[in-house]
């Protein structure tokens, strides 16, 4: 759908990108063949979205991408970006074994501000090249992640992760989390602090209430894992006589500021509660499949009115940060989730909305982000659909979700070009030498633990 604000200025004051298709992700799911996006270079906000044939005469095309589709940048709503040095460290495990036997011991040994910065550099580099323009992160040392995000010019919603590790430090974690959220110096054009509780099974209810008391006055988001595996759901109910969603509700966290990752094992009643509360569910299809956690009933949640967005989860359990792949998996698995099969479930247009405007709603930035409409900020990506492996293209949205193979060529965030022809222009690549050092140390650590385990059972 064409939409326009007068563009009386021309030349260096505005930018106009013409492309083979403009995928707006507006209410009508408009796709404009041979379309243009025009924006103001000072406000970085969109002035006009229209067919080239309707472009005002005083507006010159800055760049023409005839074989590309341009669409809103994707918002990765659940990540643990610093975990990149652990990519491939422990595959083919269930969730609890993966966490307790491999990930948590390795993190206790190796995680530091340097580790976090290095991992964030690698993940952000990968996210930019695959079309993410924002991410919601959950990890330690949030200042290190924020530093990389600011340098890379990518939107980051992050905070200090809180979980009970059994050493009495959880209250200090909550204090540190509150300081990070409330310190205005931690906010920037690119970085928005939020509150993080790892999960209900690692954060007692009284601590969840403390986090709620911090988040509500500040109006901050709360990011948490919810109902990721059936074993987790069953064990929590066995120990507490209620579900994690009951605990969130009692703690005052079940509301539209909640970003709940996974939500794989939700009953119909719990889905209805999410819908009534406005809580946001983050679907992580590839990570949930890899850890054999299950398949979330995404279409059921959408039909009930739940805002469902997409996330990659960590590079240690996915093992990719590519949101294009998440869209494809979300659509394909959505057709076989739950009782019965439905080829129309989670169609390609729905998958794109989950990766864009639904993510913008989850971070409460839908007035600025998530679609290409007049007045919104220019967070936009260009995808090359002219490559032979993408042919033929009957519907660019279908091609992007079902066919596309790493074809993001250009990325703009806040009107600034951060990727040009697959070259990242902002963030420095992580040190290959330091990654190799960590790989060697982590491999040795894993071998030592394996040897100790074998010896213990000898």
Low-pLDDT parts are: 1-11
> Beta-strand percentage?
15-25%
How many strands, which pairing sense, and closed or not: the largest β-sheet? 9 strands, mixed
Total of DSSP H or I helical runs spanning 4+ residues: 15
Which strand order do you get reading across the main beta sheet?
Answer: 1-4-3-2-5-16-17-18-19
Question: How many DSSP-defined strands?
Answer: 19
Shape: globular
Q: Look at the structure and name the CATH superfamily of the largest domain.
A: Metal-dependent hydrolases
Global Rg: 22 Å
Total count of domains: 2
CATH topology of the largest domain: TIM Barrel
- Name the assembly state: single chain
In whole angstroms, the N-to-C terminal distance is 70 Å
CATH class of the largest domain, anyone? Alpha Beta
Q: Which secondary-structure class do the elements indicate?
A: alpha/beta
Average pLDDT figure? 93
The portion of residues assigned to helices is 25-40%
Examine the secondary-structure arrangement and name the CATH architecture of the largest domain: Alpha-Beta Barrel
Structural features:
458 residues, alpha/beta, 15 helices, 19 strands, globular, Amidohydrolase-related domain-containing protein
Helix/strand layout:
Elements: E1 3-4, E2 14-23, E3 31-40, E4 46-51, E5 63-72, E6 74-79, H1 95-110, H2 113-129, E7 132-137, H3 142-152, E8 155-158, E9 161-162, H4 170-182, E10 191-193, E11 195-199, H5 205-218, E12 222-226, H6 230-240, H7 244-250, E13 258-262, H8 268-277, E14 280-283, H9 285-290, H10 298-304, E15 307-310, H11 323-334, H12 348-355, H13 357-362, E16 380-384, H14 396-403, E17 408-413, E18 416-420, E19 423-424, H15 432-456
Parallel strand pairs: 2-5, 6-7, 7-8, 8-10, 9-11, 11-12, 12-13, 13-14, 14-15
Antiparallel strand pairs: 1-4, 2-3, 3-4, 5-16, 16-17, 17-18, 18-19
Helix pairs in contact: 2-3, 4-5, 11-12, 12-14
